[in-house]
């Protein structure tokens, strides 16, 4: 197996695979280094389900239309303006044209699943989920002659100024004429999380209570090294795709099935049995990824999602059953919450509900009055037994601190783009996601910039060859 390819791709998820495929299709020889063993390949992409897609008319698995401006406004709203508009619009437009290419590489799509966050119009779902997508890409890559090495974590990068020279894997030096970095964020690095989040006023380390929804292999080794070598940074190290998940989830690789999707159908309280945020602020696809951060800011980094029988059947059931009780006081006791405070919170909320026409598929007129925080939509009294409670913890999917780039996917050093070092996926997502998230946009970013990075890396090889022959 050659260790001196034209293009070296570091990473094994969606962005890395898109880059490897594009570079190979452009005629470059490609070596892909995946840190994980073969059975754990694919990084966080293996846990994904869909891609957010711009489209101007109904398509095979997408209903109605989702035009560029609406996609942009959705992204602008969740990021609070912390986004590079030019790069965001690049991603949005690319999402309209990538699916035929994905199909050519074996990816299959299906309509939105029932109860899947109201995404039938905006998101194309992968048949078989992210694992099937990753497997399809690996099959296509190997068929095209992309070399793949598993259990090959890159220890360090060798640069000449801002030019890539070589990568080191367990003492082995691998040279290449260009390189694509797509090795994910640093969410699995507990020490870095501690450094980013620090201690709170009680002397606790909040990040010690975080669970990692995806791969344990995203340690941020290359990200940290590139920043130390002078690459330009983008993003806040405490910002991340962070979801409220079941507190019983495993430390790593819990994936989609541990997410709690009933938040907007009930109330959420902290361990002091008090509400702390508007559960009905907006549609769940636009708000589900803020709840991990909200829970992270609560005492002990825990929360409790409370629903009644009226909510059952309206959300994707998680893998763990909720705590069930016939009365609210019994539920408080089973969850370990102060019963008097819990009942005051629920009674105040119930009395404040102004129920109109309940419609969980629309921003309905069911809201609260005279209680703080308000619940602006889908507010109904929690009064119908049985009652259910889910203990929540923050589940980190990926971090947003990354490498600054431009429309060519080049890594920047001192404001100047490298001629042969490119970046894609979670390592640069902070250019588009300064904060917040909307369902499926991570795959949109990874697919768009993975394809750009692979194309540019192959072109850099050709430019280098022309210069050498001049």
Automatic annotation (TrEMBL):
Keywords for this protein: FAD, Flavoprotein, Oxidoreductase
Isomerase in keyword set: no
Keyword hit for NADP: no
FAD-dependent oxidoreductase 2 FAD-binding domain boundaries: 6-433
Coiled-coil residue spans: none
Any GO MF annotation of the entry: oxidoreductase activity
Cofactor(s) this protein requires: FAD
PANTHER family: FAD-DEPENDENT OXIDOREDUCTASE 2 FAD BINDING DOMAIN-CONTAINING PROTEIN, FUMARATE REDUCTASE
UniProt name for this protein: Fumarate reductase flavoprotein subunit
Recorded name of the encoding gene: ifcA
